[in-house]
Write a structure and sequence with these properties.
Strand content: 15-25%
Shape: elongated
Number of strands: 7
Structural class: alpha/beta
Distance between the termini: 61 Å
Largest sheet: 4 strands, mixed
Order of helices and strands: HEEHEEHHEEHE
Amino acid sequence: MKKALILIGAGVILLLIALLWLQMTPHRVVEEAEIDYTDERYTWNAQVGARGGDTLVRGEKIDEIRNDPEKLVLAFNRSGRDPEAFRTAKNEKTLGLPKLKLLDLEGNLATVEVINARYLTQRMGTTGADAFMAAATFTLTEHDAVDKVSFVFPEGDHAMPGIYSRDTFTGRWRTEPTETENDAPPPPKPPNNGPFRA
């Protein structure tokens, strides 16, 4: 009997040591690959004055994030930071570059606020503002459920708020897919079969 109690006691001590060791060992969490949001290959990009005319070029890494609207916005902003961090206070003279903030996804429409919109509407010129809006629209409509983007900001000299689609820009901008191994264009977007699904 004494021998059995000693064995049970030793077993309990070993179990406690094992539990303590597991608690002290850092947990290994498999995280998804880190995204470099400054890499323009995650978005569509405007090339003003390109040979053959102003061109929108599809980033070669966009397929990696195309079905995550938050990541598309962060990639377009070229930063993993919260878009609110870029908002210029009303009383400051220096305006930061415009950034997007995703407000809503409903049906086939993504609604975004343009933070620092005065820079967009007053300082980028008509071509620069059009390039920003076109690249943003093409980037966000990469998402399977999004066909249109509603931009929310005060109207200015070079840009107007409203609902935009790829068709809005196809008369002014050429589109060019990224070069792939076989130079094939990217696959067509699947049809929109209803509201956004996360």
